[in-house]
Write a structure and sequence with these properties.
Its main location: endoplasmic reticulum. This protein is α/β, with parallel strands linked by helices. The protein has 13 helices and 11 strands. The radius of gyration is 20 Å and the shape is globular. The protein starts with 10 loop residues before the first helix and ends with a strand.
């Protein structure tokens, strides 16, 4: 039985739905949007507005910017639309310790979920007042550098604090003198997203140590971040080990670094099926910084030791807050 949405919905709810649809279009349908970006860029050349494409082509010559800290826009980060996005779920930001603005920080964000809503809403937008919660800290979030090559979209992405997810980009931010930077990495990427479903707490972290080495090289304090509710906003088609779907997704991931996520939520005009996320609370908890000694050439033993410390602190953060956010007492993080 299909459950249809009410005919008359408060304006506030309609604005919240619009804000979420905008994010879905901008993030989950990136490949389609980037095709549109190229079509618009080339199409304008054959109209009376050809000068817009020419001027943008000149502007685009600074294509190294996504690897050099990006170009944030306070105007876009403070858009009123982000408030409606936050209220749809709703999303909350919880601080457990101060971040000294004289230091640089490297944060691991967990879990990836589908859409990374907690990371975008809390770290890329001012709907939660990040700059007020952590005064003096400039937040950056890494994303696949592929998406930062496309015209128009790359400027939109950089405006909210997105930067390229590679060593060059991380080095540029973490080596800045004077500190005050928080660089966040969604550890595990698509591989973790394949495990994203309500009630799942499985993280791909055991062999992910590149960000640990970066922290040691640049003496960037490590900050564990766990976003409760991140996995609960969508259902995902079951792909248990041994099934053809699991084999296909795994093979595609190993071959292309991408995979297909068969997820579903609710609809805009009915609540039974669709690609709108469920209205489920998301609470992003920022943990206490882990001090890191400067080690220009860290050994594998030093990396492993800090990695174990990070996993321990992340687990402690989860255990300390899970009961507040509807996680069963006997539920623990699973690392693979």
């Amino acid at each position: 039985m299909v459950e249809f949405a009410p005919l008359f919905v408060p304006l506030e709810c309609r604005l919240q739905t619009f804000a979420v649809l905008q994010l879905i279009f901008s993030y989950l349908a990136l490949h389609k949007e980037n095709v549109i970006c190229y079509v618009v860029f080339i199409g304008l050349l054959f109209t009376r507005f050809w000068m817009i494409s020419i001027l943008y082509a000149i502007w685009y010559l600074d294509r190294d910017t996504p690897w050099q800290g990006g170009r944030q826009s306070a105007f876009i980060r403070h858009w009123t639309m982000w408030k409606y996005l936050k209220d749809y779920f709703p999303v909350s930001l919880v601080k457990t310790a101060e971040l000294d603005p004289s230091w640089n920080y490297l944060a691991g964000f967990h879990p990836h979920g589908i859409g990374v809503i907690g990371a975008f809403t809390n770290l890329c937008m001012e709907s939660m007042g990040f700059s007020s919660v952590f005064p003096g800290i400039c937040s950056h979030l890494m994303m696949l550098n592929l998406w930062l090559w496309f015209p128009f979209f790359r400027d939109y992405a950089m405006s909210v604090g997105l930067v390229s997810a590679d060593k060059e980009s991380a080095t540029h931010i973490l080596s800045r003198k004077g500190g005050s930077n928080l660089l966040s990495i969604v550890v595990g990427g698509v591989q973790v997203a394949l495990n994203a479903r309500p009630g799942a707490y499985k993280l791909v972290l055991r062999n992910r140590k590149g960000f640990i080495r970066l922290a040691l090289i640049h003496r960037a304090s490590l900050v564990p971040i766990f976003s409760f509710g991140e996995n609960d906003i969508y259902d995902q088609v079951e792909s248990s080990p041994g099934s053809w779907l699991h084999w296909f997704q795994d093979r595609l991931l190993k071959t292309t670094r991408f995979s297909i996520l068969l997820f579903y939520g609710c609809g805009v005009f009915q609540y039974s099926f669709g690609f709108m996320p469920y209205c489920w609370p998301i609470t992003t908890v920022v943990g206490k910084p882990i001090e890191v000694p400067k080690t220009p050439h860290p050994s594998q033993e030093e990396v492993d030791r800090l990695h174990q410390c990070y996993i321990r602190e992340l687990s402690n953060l989860f255990e300390a807050h899970k009961l507040k956010y509807n996680v069963p007492k006997d539920q623990h993080l699973e690392f693979c």
